[in-house]
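Researcher: I'd like a structural prediction for the single chain below. Treat it as a standalone chain; there are no partners to consider.
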Amino acid sequence: MPLHRALNAYLRHITIERGLSEHSIAAYRRDLNAYVDWLRERGIEATEGITQAIVAEFIGERSAADPPPAATSLARLQSSVRGWHRFLAREGIEEDDPTGRMRPPKTPQRLPKALTIEQVERLLAAPSPEDPMGIRDRALLELLYATGARVSEAVSLDVDDLSYGDVLRLRGKGDKERIVPVGSYARAAVDAYLTRVRPGLAAKGRATARLFLGARGAPLSRQSAWLIIRAAAEKAQITSEVSPHTLRHSFATHLLQGGADVRVVQELLGHASVATTQIYTHVSVDTLRDVYATSHPRAT
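Model: Treating it as a single chain, here is the predicted structure.
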């Protein structure tokens, strides 16, 4: 099959049948476009011309690039290539999968960075309670920390998603839904936003069911949410890097430090595998070491 047709078929598959997020689809498209361009430079215009040796050459060249790619980027690239070839073999487009014996590169396990509880409190208190945008920003930050939602999940919320009392319906990766409790602080902050700010913002733009709106009444974007978090971190004088995922990491870490079961945290985060959630248990080990070092008579 011609490369462009095979690639389009796979992108339709991951979009419609697997329901991946726009961010994931964009990453697959970017990786595979680079792969297809590389194949065409070598005179390969159809999938039947791709062999195991060719795939290995492509990955080898990318690994030896100067500067070298990050291990996570290389792993994602290899995963994209493997996913495409597995799809072609499974659908009968090609007889063999040239990546069948390929082993994914080992990526170093990086512990997620979490804020302390005191830092979180400063971050949440940073937006001005007198400013309409500050009220909105406080509601967003409180909700992210209270639920562990991804920033993409938070900005995709509709007002009706809050109509379940003290729980919230989130739509995660693959459009999978989960129900997460919402604490009283977050609920109060969101109620203040809904009552005092959102009606005015909604009147400025087209009718939308989205919960969080921008200054002109349009749905809040992921990029805008990132800027809100960064501005709050600067105002709170938090010197460590704070990203949209930081509050999600802090949510999980603080739950585990408070005694929550890892499988409960897995459910709250929407992780498909508990192995993904267990990385947060390593963060709690740091706390155990600190307690041991200060409490045991022969620790040092």
